[in-house]
Specification:
Length: 331
Amino acid sequence: MKIFAYGIRDDEKPSLEDWKSAHPNIEVGYTQELLTAETATLAKGSVSAVVYQQLDYTREALTALAEVGVTNLSLRNVGTDNIDFEAAKEFNFNISNVPVYSPNAIAEHSMIQLSRLLRRTKALDAKIAKHDLRWAPTIGREMRMQTVGVIGTGNIGRVAIKILQGFGAKVVAYDKFPNAEIAEQGLYVDSLDELYAQADAVSLYVPGVPENHHMIDAAAISKMKDGVVIMNASRGNLMDIDAIIDGLNSGKISDFGMDVYEEEVGLFNEDWSGKDFPDAKIADLISRENVLVTPHTAFYTTKAVLEMVHQSMDAAVAFANGETPAIAVKY
Ligand code: COI
C-alpha cells in the first residue's frame, strides 16, 4: 500500500519519518508541492493522498486526483473551508481532517496575545529597545478585572476558558451548539448581543463557515463596550477588517490581536524582509502599538505538527482499508 503526501514542509519531515518507521509495510511518497490539477499525477499508484494547504482544493485538482484513481483525501489540518465539496461528492471522495491536533496550541497562543495586549507589551518592548526604561505611560490592565467574551466553546474555546479562569477573569460564553460542561458552569449568555454588551475583551473560536463571514462587522462592534479588546486566532473571514481598522481609529477598539487574516494566502508564511508588505492594511495594522499580528502561527507547536502528520496518515490507512476513521468528515 502506498500513501502520497503533498505540501510536506521541512518541519513535518521528522514526524513523517517517525510514522514511516512505525509502519514499515506502507510505502510513503511525498513532495513539497501542493495539490493542484498539475501535481495530482504524483499520487498515481497510491491509495490515499495526505494534504495540507491554504490554497483551494479545486474541482480541477479533485478531478485530476480522481482520474489517477485516488479518492481518499486526508487533511493534516482542521479547516475544510477550502474544499470544493460539490466536486468531492461527485467523485465520492472520502475526506478526513484533524479536528483535535492540539487545542492548547491555539488556545494558549490566543490567551498569551490577549494578556500581551492588556499589559501593552508591544509598546513596552519598543520603549525598552530604545533604552527607555521608564514605567509611564505603559500601564497595564489585569486579566482578573476583565469580563472576557468567548465566542465558540468547542475544543479550543474550552481550553481558552480554562486558561482565563486560571487568571481569574470572568468568562461569558456564546455558542449556537452549547457544551454541557460550560452550561453547567453557567457561563453562557443567550445571544451574541448580550456577550458584546458585557465583555471587556472578545476572543473567537468558531469556524470560517459562510454563516460566520464578517460576524465582527461595524454593527457588531457598535454593540461592544467602548475600549473593547478583540482577539482572533480562528479564521480571517470572521472579521470585517475595515470595520476593525475604523474601530481602532475611533478608539472604540482599544487593542486588537490577529493570528489570521482574510487575505493571508500568499502573504503569511512568506519572507518579506527588506521588502514592503504587498498589503496596505496589514502594513497599517503591524505598525500600530495596540495591534498584535502573528502570521497564522497559533497552531504551530511541535505537538500540533506531530499530531497533524500522524493522525492524517492513520486516517489515510483506514480509508485505504475500507474503514471509516473517527476523524472522517461528514459532508
Ligand atoms: C487549521 O488547522 O485549519 C489551521 O488553521 C492551522 C493551519 C495553518 C495548519
